[in-house]
Amino acid sequence: MLIANLLFFQPDGQKTSSKRSRAPVAMSASYTSTKSEEMITLLRTLHNLDAWNQHINSFLCSHLSKIPDMVAEKTRNLTVS
């Protein structure tokens, strides 16, 4: 019921025109956002398990050193464009 009200009625209670049949904002998270959230949840869950903790720590530590290079590359790409 709430979603129907959001989609078809203006805040003042007036029905929207038939020309505007879509919601003014996204009604769900993007695919990328959803996948990122799921990956973070999985990593956090695995990190809490003794069998996975050291593996997750090693992976994260080995990739943290790559951040400055990735940021520098992104900055170069932005200035070239």
The general outline is flat
Task: Characterize the main sheet.
Answer: none
Output mean pLDDT: 77
SSE topology string = HHHH
Strand elements, count: 0
User: SS-based structural class?
Assistant: mainly alpha
Terminal Cα separation, in Å? 46 Å
Low-confidence stretches: 1-10
Q: Using the CA coordinates, give the radius of gyration.
A: 22 Å
Tell me what portion of residues adopts beta-strand conformation: under 5%
Total of helices: 4
Quaternary structure of the protein: single chain
Percent helix among the residues? 55-70%
Describe the structure.
This protein has 81 residues and is mostly helical. It has a domain at 39-81. Helices cover 65% and strands 0% of the residues. The protein contains 4 helices and no strands. The longest helix is centred in the middle third of the chain and has 17 residues, at 31-47. The radius of gyration is 22 Å and the shape is flat. The protein starts with a helix and ends with a helix. The relative contact order is 0.06. The model is unreliable at 1-10 (pLDDT under 50).
Salient structural properties:
single chain; 81 residues; mainly alpha; 4 helices
Could you write a compact summary of the structure shown?
This protein is mainly α and 81 residues long. It has helices at 2-8, 31-47, 50-64, 67-80.
What topology emerges from the helices and strands here?
Elements: H1 2-8, H2 31-47, H3 50-64, H4 67-80
